[in-house]
Design a protein that fits this description.
This protein is mostly helical. 72% of the residues lie in helices and 0% in strands. The chain has 11 helices and no strands. It holds the Pfam family TetR_N.
Length: 204
């Protein structure tokens, strides 16, 4: 018993095997099991098998931990293409992948939605903006489209309806309607693209 107590008093920095990567990966596992709302620093430390202070040595607080988890999830979502002509299928696939990635971690879409400035994919957004500009969108139209797609996808994912069947509404039905909604947004964007090109020709 004394050895166990002494082990818990071992300074966090000297504890072998503990790192930011291990902590974030373990947090992801816990969130996948029971949701972000149930994640606490104490529960995480218990799963890691370390003292609470050891975890705080690497992560300042729960919010900081959730930020790292959101960033980790975002790294799993990639643009398949940046070709201007393929902007529609590229954005459609990106949003579907976004929804799938965050659906695996209940509660994280809601956190990401509330903290997008801290956890948003800055590099990805810049790449999308360039792709849309090359396709012919104005800057305002590009920003509006990105915001519309993000808030639509995040909102649907944050509700949790994509993970559990509801009375008269199965998850497969939700997925179909979600993708149909994406198509409507992208069709509207295509119409806006035509308007942007027409306006640009009129100015020339």
């Amino acid at each position: 018993m004394q050895k166990k107590k002494d082990a818990l008093r071992t300074p966090a920095a000297s504890r072998p095997g503990l790192s930011i990567e291990v902590i974030v990966e373990t947090a992801c596992e816990l969130i996948a099991e029971s949701g972000a709302d149930q994640l606490t620093m104490r529960r995480l430390s218990e799963r890691l098998g370390v003292a609470l202070g050891a975890t705080y040595h690497y992560v300042p607080n729960r919010d900081g931990l959730l930020k790292l988890v959101a960033e980790r999830i975002m790294t799993t979502i990639e643009l398949l293409s940046t070709t201007p002509k393929s902007w529609q299928p590229t954005l459609r696939t990106l949003m579907i992948d976004f929804a799938a990635a965050f659906t695996r971690y209940p509660g994280m879409a809601r956190y990401h939605l509330a903290n997008v400035e801290a956890t948003g994919p800055v590099n990805t957004q810049a790449t999308i903006m360039q792709m849309l500009a090359d396709a012919g969108f104005s800057t305002d139209s590009s920003l509006t489209l990105i915001a519309a797609l993000f808030f639509y996808t995040s909102g649907v994912t944050a509700t949790g309806i994509m993970t559990h069947d509801q009375p008269g509404l199965t998850t497969s039905m939700v997925a179909q309607r979600f993708e149909a909604g994406l198509d409507l947004l992208l069709e509207g964007a295509a119409a806006q693209l035509r308007a942007d090109k027409k306006a640009r020709r009129a100015e020339a």
